[in-house]
Write a structure and sequence with these properties.
The protein has two helices and two strands; from the N terminus they run αββα. It is mostly helical and about 80 residues long. The structure holds zinc ion.
Length: about 80
């Protein structure tokens, strides 16, 4: 899905925001309950780590890209507000 290659994302500040965004989105879409993993988008599970990853990639790939993009924008605009950009 292109998650694996944040360096291709320019400029650098966006690359940094992109990594953080992927992390934040991952926290939201991976739900851990009683030692098992569930999908945070549709609630399906339980999965093993690899199974959940495949599920997210196949079923929610586009949704997740949208979430990441929104999160990148949010992070970039909030870091600008704080004067760190
Ligand atoms: Zn799901």
């Amino acid at each position: 899905m292109g998650f694996e290659d944040p360096e291709s994302f320019e400029p650098r500040i966006l690359s940094r925001a992109y990594l953080d965004a992927v992390k934040n989105v991952a926290l939201r879409v991976v739900v851990e309950r009683g030692g098992a993993l569930y999908c945070g988008i549709c609630g399906r599970g339980p999965y093993r780590r690899k199974g959940l990853y495949l599920h997210l990639k196949r079923i929610h790939g586009d949704d997740i890209l949208d979430l990441v993009e929104l999160e990148v924008r949010r992070l970039v605009s909030s870091s600008k507000r704080r004067g760190r950009a």
